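Q: Please design a sequence for this.
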């Protein structure tokens, strides 16, 4: 499939620039712990939008991920990605389990997600590496949402339920960029907000895709 810029690229650039630290006379960087938080967000973003636009995957893949190919190519791509993810996804309770699990595998790390954050959370990450990480998890989330929306919805609901207060405050103490007080949001609220942002972007930068996706309805 042909690669072209998409909504995820613009979002990743914005999020990374908002989060990076830029020391005087040195190149900007992010902390690995920040990247993990963004990875969770981009997986969720992809899953919500992939579920919503799964009946128009060719247009969605181009608009969202910047992937363009022949008719049906995006559906096949999502199918391959989702099936490869499914063994791990079925063992995960929430999105952060998937992110930390895949990251631990890449780093050859043995331990839970809190140990991963504790040992690697302060590591410096280049902005371009952080942006690629965002894209990768947006791809995974969108593929899962498009092909197995029920599995994604389960991960979403577990991720966005209220955590126990001790774990929440422990995460803050370890440097995770989360607010002091928890704010639980519903799936419908997230879908509405993310879809509006996505369509606003397309209206400005890809009107031909906006025309196709703005009236998209979820396939039953």
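A: Design:
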């Amino acid at each position: 499939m042909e690669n072209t810029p998409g909504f995820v690229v613009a979002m990743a650039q914005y999020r990374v620039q908002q989060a990076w630290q830029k020391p005087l006379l040195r190149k900007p960087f992010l902390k690995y712990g920040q990247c993990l938080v963004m990875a969770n967000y981009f997986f969720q973003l992809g899953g919500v939008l992939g579920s919503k636009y799964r009946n128009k995957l060719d247009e969605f893949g181009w608009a969202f991920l910047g992937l363009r190919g022949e008719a049906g190519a995006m559906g096949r791509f999502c199918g391959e990605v989702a099936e490869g993810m499914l063994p791990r996804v079925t063992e995960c309770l929430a999105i952060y389990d998937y992110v930390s699990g895949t990251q631990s595998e890449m780093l050859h790390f043995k331990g839970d997600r809190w140990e991963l954050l504790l040992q690697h959370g302060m590591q410096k990450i280049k902005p371009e590496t952080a942006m690629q990480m965002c894209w990768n998890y947006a791809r995974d989330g969108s593929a899962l949402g498009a092909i197995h929306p029920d599995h994604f919805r389960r991960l979403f609901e577990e991720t966005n339920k209220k955590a126990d207060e001790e774990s929440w405050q422990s995460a803050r103490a370890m440097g995770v960029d989360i607010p002091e007080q928890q704010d639980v949001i519903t799936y419908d609220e997230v879908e509405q907000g993310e879809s509006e942002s996505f369509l606003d972007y397309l209206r400005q930068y890809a009107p031909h895709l906006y025309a196709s996706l703005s009236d998209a309805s979820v396939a039953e």
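Q: Thanks. Anything notable?
A: The chain has a mean pLDDT of 89. The radius of gyration is 17 Å.
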